[in-house]
Amino acid sequence: MIINYSTDTSVIIMTDLDGTLLDFNTFGFDPIRPVIEELLESGIVIIPNSSKTNIEIDNFCNLLGVKLPYICENGASLCNANLIGESWDILNNHTIIKGRGCTDLMETWLYSIDNNLRQQCYFLTEMGTEQQSDILGLTGKELDCALTRQFTCPFIFNGTDDDYHYLQIQAKTARLNVQKGGRICQLSGEHNKASFNQLLRDYFSNQQQKTIILAFGDSYNDVSMLEAADIACIIPQPAKPALILPTPPKKVFTATTAAPDGWLEALPNALKYLENFNIERHNHG
Questions:
Q1: Which pLDDT score, from 0 to 100, does residue 212 have?
Q2: How far apart are CA 225 and CA 125, in angstroms?
Q3: Amino acid 198: pLDDT
């Protein structure tokens, strides 16, 4: 794969993991591994952006064999920020946090959300190990890592769509956020997967570079990230219609197959569009 783009452009691939880059059921990604290595060698910045915990994403990076900057727990924290660029010096901090602690979240939840809505929410911390495993598709140490959360509280919602809408309204009033992913819902502070986009754009702007963000996602909690990107790549979940963005960016590519093959299907289309865009911009410059 030959990757061509302007030298005054910083390209960021921001990708969800489960169901987008990783197989929805097995969490495998072997076909993507050599492609990621090639992308990194070309100078493209790859930032996993996931509801997963920092421990889970560290484990993914270890399997990949490359340390990456990443955003964990639905935009709660940007980790390994120093890997984004040599002059990244925001507070000289390798981790930038936008999230609130789980204890604080649950205290606000208890006095801000109507009891009838709270009764329709079943938090994973209230469940037994077997049920947690069935919901997340994980066991043993992997399950423990998925439940070791600092900034988000996962739950199952058993109400109607209208009930969920009212829950979101009450949460927003209380300066909380409720987001629905591929398997579970998450209670969090006022952040989402696009929370660090402007920070990234500002950083590269200060380096006299234009920023192009290619975002890859598959579920509702990826909408903010996909809509805030320059190019959105939507990966369908198995046996489900692909996500439709309410406010899409200028260019959207929708894969026809699930992860990881769908990720590999959408990537060259996005890179080709980026290459043509830069040629056109150069010709009109």
A1: 93
A2: 27
A3: 94
Quick check: pTM over 0.85? yes
Query: Contact, 167 vs 203, CB < 8 A?
Result: no
> pLDDT band at 281, cuts 50/70/90?
very low
Residue pair 171/76 in contact (Cβ under 8 Å)? The answer is no
Based on the domain organization, do 180 and 224 belong to the same domain?
no
**Position 78 in a domain:** yes
Last residue of a domain, one of 188, 219, 251: 188
Across the chain, what does the average pLDDT equal?
Answer: 91
Last residue of a domain, one of 188, 210, 233: 188
Find the distance separating the first CA and the last CA of the chain, reported in whole Å. 27
> CA-CA distance, 255 to 266, in Å (whole number)?
6
Angle 140-147/54-64 helices, nearest 10 degrees?
130
CATH code of the domain containing 205: 3.40.50.1000
Q: Name 157's Cβ contacts closer than 8 Å, sequence gap at least 6.
A: 120, 121, 122, 163, 164, 167, 180, 185
Does the pLDDT of residue 55 top 70, yes or no?
Answer: yes
| pLDDT score for 59 | 96
